Amino acid sequence: MSQRRDFFRAAGALALGATAVSRVGAASLPEAVVQTSPTTQPPPAPPNGRPFNPVVTLNGWSLPWRMKDGVKEFHLVAEPVVRELAPGMTARLWGYNGSSPGPTIEVVEGDRVRIFVTNKLPEHTTAHWHGVQLPSGMDGVGGLTQPHIPPGKTFVYEFTLQRPGTHMYHPHADEMVQIAMGMMGLLIVHPKDPRQHRVDRDFAFLLGAYDIEPGSATPRVSEMTNFNLWTWNSRVFPGIDPLVARTGDRVRIRVGNLTMTNHPIHMHGPSFEVTGTDGGWVPKAARWPEVTTDIAVGQMRAIEFDAIAGDWSIHCHKSHHTMNAMGHQVPNLIGTDMRGLGQRIGRLIPGYMVMGDTGMAGMSEMDMELPENTLPMMMGQGPFGPLEMGGMFSVVKVRDGIKPGDYRDPGWYRHPEGTVAHEYTGEQPTVNRAAPTSSPSEATMSVRKPGGHHHEH
Ligand SMILES: [Cu+2]
């Protein structure tokens, strides 16, 4: 509290003239670093303070700090941002320091932090430190533990990180609007001993959901269930960077969920273990192997695995969450003859799309006219054809010989000779099958009386 008073007293001294300058300088706000690029920025090793192994925020970045008298000072600015969700679509969101999600804050167990939060939004906000043990008055719940931060004002949060773990920050003020607009970020507390919980690659991202009408750019914040864009760090596939690792690396992926529904995150290839939650690290004896972990609303899961060479899909297993904006209200027309129907409806309702009569796979190959600023429902091109994915999907790309610290996309996996599924070109079997039937009773009949469906004319 005394630091906070000093801060405001010093800030107030700004008008007093030259003699006050040195005091103001000492108490000035740390620089608010801004980053608008959606490209993954692997952070450098910490320049000061306790050593730690930084995380790699997928399509994101970590916030630099200023060390002052042994306290790490960060400056978050809550503000409107423009975020590219994937090439071809940008969204008008709210975030921090130029991006949604905001930058990752990385600290070490035992660190004292002072986090300045400046509000450049049109309405009041707060910053809540999700899962962090701190004095109640630093918990950031507007109205309950502090007054809201009015537009144009800066508040200071100061506390000591008592245990290592993966946490999130988000407003606890008009949450329905502010979280739906993209206000969230990661807060990683590294262990005091960097050898503890050590991995070779440590990725982190937050699950998000938006409802953006095709052709518009601002989310509809009143939406409760019917979201149409499912994001990782406010990106959708193919805008989500791959998670790159070297064969044999121990890899951790930390995933936090700030959407309004659960997401079963599934990874192909090696099995993994859940090693951490918002509450801390899972004791070794309590871990079990998994290939899917369900992440409920407000939860965080850290998973770990030993990387095996290949291109391994990682995605939400709710199939509507691996699609982009056009996935709603499409009637199921499998088995329907709809030749020309799409064009005819399209003349009446521009941008209308009908589901294919054999499924939807054909959609990703169609060159359709879309409204401005939206994405095809399924997209992405792989080495063998269209990937037919969107939303919460990426690829864990594991290769031999990738250097530590190298996170660049290594391209598609070169499969060893003879290890790719391929067309069967041998002899075809000559089995006589019963003709397809349309109801169980007919099927029963055809079994009883083979050839009974043969009609003579
Ligand atoms: Cu999902």
UniProtKB/TrEMBL annotation:
Lipid biosynthesis keyword on record: no
Keywords, ordered alphabetically: Metal-binding, Oxidoreductase, Signal
Gene Ontology cellular-component terms listed: periplasmic space
Domain Plastocyanin-like: 87-193, 218-331
Region (Disordered): 422-457
InterPro entries: Cu-oxidase-like_N (IPR011707), Cu-oxidase_C (IPR011706), Cu-oxidase_fam (IPR045087), Cu_oxidase_Cu_BS (IPR002355), Cupredoxin (IPR008972), TAT_signal (IPR006311)
PANTHER family: MULTI-COPPER OXIDASE (PTHR11709)
Entry GO MF terms: copper ion binding; oxidoreductase activity
Bias (Polar residues) ranges: 427-444
Protein name: Copper oxidase
Organism superkingdom: Bacteria
Compartment list: Periplasm
Pfam families: Cu-oxidase_2, Cu-oxidase_3
Predominant location category: periplasm
Keyword flag Ubl conjugation: no
Secretion signal, residue range per the UniProt entry: 1-26
PROSITE patterns the record matches: MULTICOPPER_OXIDASE2, TAT
Organism whose genome encodes this protein: Aquabacterium soli
